[in-house]
Design brief:
The structure is a homodimer. Chain A has about 350 residues and is of the alpha/beta class. Helices cover about 45% and strands about 15% of the residues of chain A. In chain A, helix 1 packs across helix 2 and helix 5 crosses helix 13. Chains A and B meet through helix 4, helix 5, strand 2, helix 6 and helix 11 of A and helix 4, helix 5, strand 2, helix 6 and helix 11 of B. The first copy, chain A, binds a DNA duplex (16 and 16 nucleotides) through helix 2 and helix 4.
Chain lengths: ~350, ~350
DNA sequence: CTGAAAGCGCTTACAG
DNA sequence: CTGAAAGCGCTTACAG
């Protein structure tokens, strides 16, 4: 049978109150008594019941994390960092992936509420239907940290996607590219598209909307989407010498499609991705991409959340932004740009 | 403030006992009363406190899952299936990755015990130090399902790694290969190595230990390990026309090294991987590999665990084995190169 | 069908 | 320094 505090008290010949004191190390306990109790705890292999503890202490030492998918290296990596960091501080993490399904988001919020988590980290993009839970939870006093700066009243840790995308596109510009296509998808990529547009604007390059591919549909197979998008570009006879993709999987799909169409990467077309998943360095050609400081971001997220848990009275939502880092690899390496496209000089 | 069952009782003008009955839908409650209570619950947005419930019901509706790493598509995929399946049945999953660190395994077991999880799924390979927890937990009556057939007294769901590896190597043999190298690592790959050896044996091919690369060290960067292993084979002038790698990441690293050494895949050397991660189909060349039925395995794992939770008296450890599927792609395909790649696109 | 009461395993003032 | 007792938010016999 499960060992309870009573068993320990009996074994050590003290009251349960004293055992409790030893467990929590708060009040003073005579050394002799303490040793006796510690021995009993060890002997019985006693572990205090979290549920009973939770009821009194009003804290569960549990954090909820909501992400879109676990089988995506970015989210898996971030989840792992968050979990490890929380673990060190005695917290347990409940990870929930919602597959971008509002019903699942709803269900997850309910789980978090039932489990009375001490705080919540939201990595998903919430739907209209579920975003109200954020307000409910805030009202209830449950601290929340978001990983996207979507919600004005919620604390947030995020990478500087706009800057990262700008850096990537500016790199292409410096290599001489003028016709740079963009492949992206729904809301998560908005900031990256902004960066793309900003960079072009700042170089006074006229936007060619015909080589900008995006969709509001939920994209599940990013690589497939990248692949299809290139085929669309080719079919529509879009002119481009480079492609900036909103993430690495799209970029890898794009390269595959380009190669199949007999277009060489990077010789004929340069490709840049985003995220620096581990495959980016292994792919052939290896992928130029933008790296997010996942570890630092994960830690900062946990720090911010725990801070919020300790001092619930933060009046204003804080936003912390991390810089991104351009990683230059083969897919758009320092290839010399063919000056064959004379017409581009007219830009 | 948090809404409790008392608030609902007051709002609905009944006793907390009746509210409890409505929540759990067990005893009969007059329809009128029920509606009144349901309205109150909705109005106050009440959710029963899991902790209080747990104390009485002796179940937490929580399952612990221990895996080596989350940033590995195989484990991420399996975790997601397990989580979804459990979610449907009203269970919450606590995922813990131990990074193959015995201390972390220990810590995770402690967390599982403190949280009084209703059951545990072990995907990690346990160290001598931590394997005793399995016995402790079994003694305590906590059901456990393992994802490797290592522990004789523990129920287990696993893929047929031996058969999968045999299929892969037999495929190479059918293509005419006779000098097939093997790249693998620590205990997780043992069964795959067995399959490799079995296949060679059954074809009466003498084992050439000089082209079998393995290690007992913890391998963290599989792709890097595959890369290094090929270089070792090349340095030692090992003769081989094909390589069977114990997982896809090793295979991808191997291909990279082969290419860098001027050896073409699959023309000069065929490569086969294992797992069928999503990148296997996207890599260039795409990877011939062995696919595990992750979804079915995840579901079977959950079913088996819940079964165990319901009927704790299973006398004998059951082992369920799933067949693997060989996926033939370019990296060792019987593929002749088609020069259809000639259509140049004017960009 | 419904309510009063006991009890789950802890923590924490309150006394001593 | 230590113990008796109240109480956390529920569920569930036990009465009615």
């Amino acid at each position: 049978m499960k060992v309870t505090i009573k068993d320990v008290a009996r074994e050590a010949n003290v009251s349960i109150a004293t055992v409790s004191r030893v467990i929590n190390g708060k009040d003073r306990v005579k050394k002799e008594t303490r040793l006796k109790i510690e021995k009993a705890i060890k002997k019985l292999n006693f572990r205090p019941d979290q549920a009973a503890r939770t009821m009194i202490m009003k804290e569960t030492k549990t954090i909820g994390l909501m992400i879109p998918v676990l089988t995506n290296e970015y989210w898996a990596g971030l989840s792992e960092v968050i979990q490890d960091t929380l673990g060190e501080k005695g917290y347990t993490l409940i990870i929930g992936s919602d597959n971008m399904n509002p019903d699942k988001q709803e269900a997850l919020f309910n789980v978090f509420q039932e489990r009375k988590v001490d705080g919540i980290i939201v990595g998903s993009v919430l739907s209209d239907k579920t975003v109200k839970h954020v307000d409910d939870l805030k009202q209830e006093g449950t601290p929340i940290v978001s990983l996207y700066p979507f919600y004005s009243n919620v604390n947030c840790v995020t990478g500087d996607h706009v800057q990262g995308a700008m850096d990537a596109v500016q790199h292409l510009l410096q290599l001489g590219h003028r016709k740079i296509a963009y492949i992206g998808a729904a809301s998560t990529s908005d900031y990256r598209e902004m960066g793309y547009r900003n960079a072009l604007m700042m170089s006074s390059i006229k936007m060619d909307e015909s080589i900008i591919i995006k969709t509001n549909d939920m994209v599940r197979k990013f690589s497939h989407y990248g692949y299809e998008s290139i085929n669309k570009l080719i079919e529509s006879k879009g002119e481009f010498t480079a492609v900036f993709c909103a993430n690495d999987l799209m970029a890898i799909g794009a390269i595959k499609a380009l190669k199949e169409a007999g277009i060489k990467v990077p010789e004929d077309v340069a490709v840049v991705g985003f995220d620096d998943i581990s495959m980016a360095g292994l792919y052939q050609p290896s992928l130029t991409t933008v790296q997010q400081p996942i570890k630092e971001m994960g830690k900062a997220t946990v720090d911010m959340l725990l801070e919020l848990i300790l001092h619930k009275d933060e009046p204003i939502a804080k936003k912390v932004t991390f810089p991104m880092k351009l990683i230059v690899r083969e897919s758009c390496g320092a290839k010399k740009f063919m000056p064959s496209d004379n017409k581009q000089l007219s830009l």
